[in-house]
């Protein structure tokens, strides 16, 4: 097949008219715009031209992704799911207990949270590899944000009420974002922000574990690095060597297991089994030497039985509602970001789609239901999902399997954890969060984009020294500022022709590009908005000034025409239109012609509506720079 | 001259390499970027290659623009300046007194403020037509913001201290913005924001003048529309018909004079002379009928003499410092915006440049000096500058002339204002602010850009119903959101070839554009940033899905290659690069080739630094869509 463009190179140059986009009413435009904002993936396309029963089935599959794969479920898939489910259960139980401690909650809440939410997710969720349950970041943030206002030691009931209320509100917020299809809100936590945030949080979490690892009893409630470190060293009298030895031993064991698994993906089960092994081993040690190791603090009594209902503990009034809302919002966003990022990662490895908005609803409903059954905020965990994936999980049945295992634990095995030492939980947490510190990503940010690296630093130090919400807010602010900066100070470049082509390129970048005599061709590489009109105005005048200086110096032919390459001017507003007119007026006074090349559809439309388009007229608009140059210089030759 | 592109249309198609921009060190890049941010107009270029004495002269001219025109000043210019100076003085004296009342200040402060600041501006300012003095908006905002916390009736001294402190801080802020070359900050008050804000403020100001016009004694301190209207109607017992008749009469006179001047620009002196005429007439009426018109409130005693020093009234401590800072910031920004907009308007009419940053310094220093000599915040007034321009002002000598007239008034004529009725001040204010309501601009916003209109409405209703700072903040928020929305949801379009050219255009917009078989050409019209990576990813997959559906339906030739037109992708960040890689990986799995056409310099650079560029290789990058199509389809023909 010969493309059309090749056949016609020999035809005489022809000028094509720049046309307006097909005219639409305001309502049509609004509809199109809203569809692009809220339904970029056109989820309802597949419902078109379908029978009613098909539509019903599609709708059911849309709401409950379980119906997509359930009809084809078979024994072979079940086998894989059982194996992976048991594997992640062995990880989920010790991690659940540990993370609950991180959120200043009784360990049993961590197990409750590993039972109900995974069941709900398995029906609603669209990721097949996500392992659902409590996660370190959300636990830490919830724990510190609430504990700063309400002490979990002095007011345990109020604290618990706030945890469940915040979890419910996080769920409402998450489901709301999904329902309103505002999923793009979480996109504003850029990768750079997250890399910095995760690293900062991991360092704080690890340092806080020194409490358990050193055996300190009195510890700060704060989460900034300075009070935490102060606490560690001020309480040297509370350090106990037995705890330290046991903690260090198991920490080394766990970190070694992690290294082994990282070096060889097939040995993923080493790090997956290590936490439960450590729990069992350490519990046995403490149990058998309990007379000698009484100074090692242990979990103690844990109630047997299923999740008790907790809907009576949700309080949406009183002076702490603001705190619960704020905590819910922050943990909601953070857990959503983690859950969706993890879901997308594994989906892309297996080539299926995870619908962000649907995931938000699934995670949201799972948290709302969880908050009524004694669970705190949960999401998809990166570490457990990786194990799940490596263990061969095929569907969310692995989550059901894990839930069942947790159920059995809750019903029968709770007394076994009585002598589990708290120090082992600290070691498990450190091993889990250490992977969140991603030096390589940070280094890559530095190499590729200095401003991204700055964002990363802001969130890192913000979290370490100020607080999680403020650290995140600063990082998001820097990210947004970066976008605004790009718009406020857009690139402009003078273009030249590449001999032998119709291509006009940056003179500064392409050595072979040549200035076209009597023309100044400038491209503006951003929308022309109120925020940059002054800049564009001044910069254009400077381009012209510099060109004229160049001509005087090099004895070039006099400047007659300025061509603005509008290809990258993807939008314009009223201030921008005024600026274009102003530049045109100024150039006319100097007998210079201003011509626009390739204005985008909506730019044309706005210029048309404001009546400016007509003033440019037929001779002021061209479809490409090359047509503009050809046509105008031909005109000059005809009328010398 | 024949442009190079015309001579070579017949040469065989050739493929040009996409090159990286000339490599620069991080420091060089940073320098270039900072220069573009802070010195887009390259103000130091003219200092290059100059002798020392020339440099000194240029520097002097740069700091004190008076040296630019002073050497060529002559008698003829002086004549024009004297006439225009006297004209604006006749306007400045009644307006000064009125605006001081608007700021809840003694009328004499308004005259003080029309004396010192114009003198300073005439030395430092670069606009030749700006008439400097108190203005309505800044007076209103300062008056209401301070009076909400400190009553000007109960604590007049504290109120005055706060006014001078706020003025000083406004000056510091303004000069600081100029010195740090952060002038673009005021660009964020877009035209749409200002149209709405001005209209809202004009309505509030006019309604507040009902106090004077109706003769009400007890009036609200607030500036929202509801308390103001409530005050007007609750105090019907205080209305006095003599005041109303006099107010209405002079208001009609002033408005008629304004209409006459607007209909015929040559009669500008009618509206220029009207306020002083009204003041003289009304004073005479009240003076001669003072026994019968005792219910009409009058200005009363005004002290004679020059501005007393007020530097001892500046207080930078205490509980009200925050209030003074906030007020200074808001009035500083507002007066800066007005002054610079006015300066630019008249500069563009007369073809000279007004340097924004320099103007900021001039206005800032003038306010700092003003605050030490009993002046409150001043800037360039639109109405008086227009009169100045029309009266033929040539340089800032007209400001000096005006100052001199005010000086004479202060020294000798103050007792004449004793019987001036307050009602006339209200009429003068209403006539001045009514011009700020710009229906036509609002209608144009609606026609051209619905989102701009929304911004305008937000600031209009925000100012009317909430408060000036919040109304402005909301409007700026909406404007910024608009920029972010454009980045978050960029346009994407499928391109087709326009037969007989190398041009590829939007298939939807250009009927003549034709799909190229086996190719899908998509252009993305925004930088690829963290905020839109998810969207770009989903939207690309949808384009491919839709293209494949179209092919199945129309029995087209199978899709083999996707070309991304990157012309409008003016920047990319690390998330964006990851997304491109991800899309490429997904397409490779489906045996589709992904090719980039015309990637911008900095995009290339970032892809190079992240090591992605190499993975695209030579066959994955083309200088234009047309070269990509030609080369790839030639390749297919060679290897079928």
TrEMBL record, chains A, B:
SUPFAM superfamilies: SpoIIaa-like (SSF52091). It comes from the Eukaryota. PROSITE patterns: SLC26A (PS01130), STAS (PS50801). One of its GO terms (cellular component) is membrane. It is found in: Membrane. Residues 509-632 form the STAS domain. InterPro entries: S04_transporter_CS (IPR018045), SLC26A/SulP_dom (IPR011547), SLC26A/SulP_fam (IPR001902), STAS_dom (IPR002645), STAS_dom_sf (IPR036513). It is a multi-pass membrane protein. The chain crosses the membrane at residues 52-70, 130-146, 158-180, 192-219, 239-255, 267-289, 360-379, 400-417, 423-441, 453-481. Its main location: membrane. Keywords: Membrane, Transmembrane, Transmembrane helix, Transport. GO terms for molecular function: secondary active sulfate transmembrane transporter activity. PANTHER family: SULFATE TRANSPORTER. This is Sulfate transporter 3.4.
């Amino acid at each position: 097949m010969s493309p059309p463009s090749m056949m016609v190179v020999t035809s005489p140059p022809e000028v094509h008219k720049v046309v307006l986009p097909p005219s639409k009413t305001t309502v049509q435009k609004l509809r199109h715009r809203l569809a692009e904002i809220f339904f970029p993936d056109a989820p309802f396309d597949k419902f078109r031209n379908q029978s009613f029963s098909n539509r019903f089935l599609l709708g059911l599959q849309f709401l409950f992704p379980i119906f997509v794969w359930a009809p084809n479920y078979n024994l072979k898939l079940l086998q894989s799911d059982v194996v992976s489910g048991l594997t992640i259960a062995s990880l989920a139980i010790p991690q659940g207990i540990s993370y609950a401690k991180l959120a200043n909650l009784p360990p049993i809440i961590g197990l409750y949270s590993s039972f109900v939410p995974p069941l709900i997710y398995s029906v609603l969720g669209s990721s097949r590899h996500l392992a659902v349950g409590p996660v370190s970041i959300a636990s830490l943030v919830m724990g510190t944000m609430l504990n700063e206002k309400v002490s979990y030691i002095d007011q345990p009931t109020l604290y618990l009420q706030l945890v469940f209320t915040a979890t419910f509100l996080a769920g409402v917020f998450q489901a709301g974002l999904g329902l309103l299809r505002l999923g793009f809100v979480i996109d504003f936590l850029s990768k750079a922000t997250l890399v910095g945030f995760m690293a900062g949080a991991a360092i704080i979490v690890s340092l806080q574990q020194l409490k358990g690892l050193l055996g300190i009893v009195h510890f700060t409630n704060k989460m900034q690095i300075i009070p935490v470190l102060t606490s560690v060293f001020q309480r040297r009298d509370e350090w106990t060597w037995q705890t330290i030895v046991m903690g260090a031993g198991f920490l080394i064991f766990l970190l070694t297991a992690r290294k082994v698994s990282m070096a060889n993906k097939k040995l993923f089960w080493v790090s997956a089994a290590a936490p439960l092994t450590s729990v069992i081993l350490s519990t046995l040690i403490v149990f058998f030497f309990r007379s000698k190791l009484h100074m090692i603090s242990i979990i103690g009594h844990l109630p047997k039985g299923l999740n008790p209902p907790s809907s009576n503990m949700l309080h949406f009034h009183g002076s702490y509602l603001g705190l619960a809302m704020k905590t819910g919002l922050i943990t909601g966003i953070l857990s959503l970001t983690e859950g969706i990022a993890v879901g997308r990662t594994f989906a892309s490895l297996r080539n299926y789609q995870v619908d962000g908005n649907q995931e938000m609803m699934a995670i949201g409903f799972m948290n709302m239901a969880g908050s009524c059954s004694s669970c705190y905020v949960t999401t998809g965990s990166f570490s457990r999902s990786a194990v799940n994936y490596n263990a061969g999980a095929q569907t969310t049945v692995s989550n059901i399997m894990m839930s069942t295992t947790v159920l059995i634990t809750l019903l029968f095995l709770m007394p076994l954890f009585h002598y589990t030492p708290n120090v082992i939980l600290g070691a498990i947490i450190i091993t889990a969060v250490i992977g969140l510190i991603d030096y390589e990503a940070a280094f890559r940010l530095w190499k590729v984009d200095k401003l991204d690296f700055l964002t990363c630093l802001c969130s890192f130090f913000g979290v370490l020294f100020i607080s999680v919400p403020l650290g995140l807010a600063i990082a998001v602010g820097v990210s947004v500022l970066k976008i605004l900066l790009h718009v406020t100070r857009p690139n402009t470049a003078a273009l030249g022709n590449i001999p032998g082509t119709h291509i006009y390129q940056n003179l500064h970048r392409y050595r072979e590009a040549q200035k076209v005599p009597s023309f100044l061709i400038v491209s503006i590489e951003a929308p022309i908005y109120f925020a940059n009109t002054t800049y564009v105005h001044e910069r254009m005048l400077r381009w012209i000034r510099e060109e004229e200086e160049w001509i005087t110096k090099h004895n070039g032919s006099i400047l007659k025409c300025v061509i603005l390459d509008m290809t990258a001017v993807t939008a314009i507003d009223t201030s921008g239109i005024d600026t274009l007119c102003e530049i045109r007026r100024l150039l006319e006074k100097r007998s210079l012609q201003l011509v626009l090349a390739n204005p985008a559809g909506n730019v044309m439309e706005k210029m048309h509506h404001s009546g400016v388009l007509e003033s440019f007229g037929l001779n002021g608009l061209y479809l490409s720079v090359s047509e503009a140059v050809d046509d105008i210089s031909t005109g000059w030759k005809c009328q010398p």
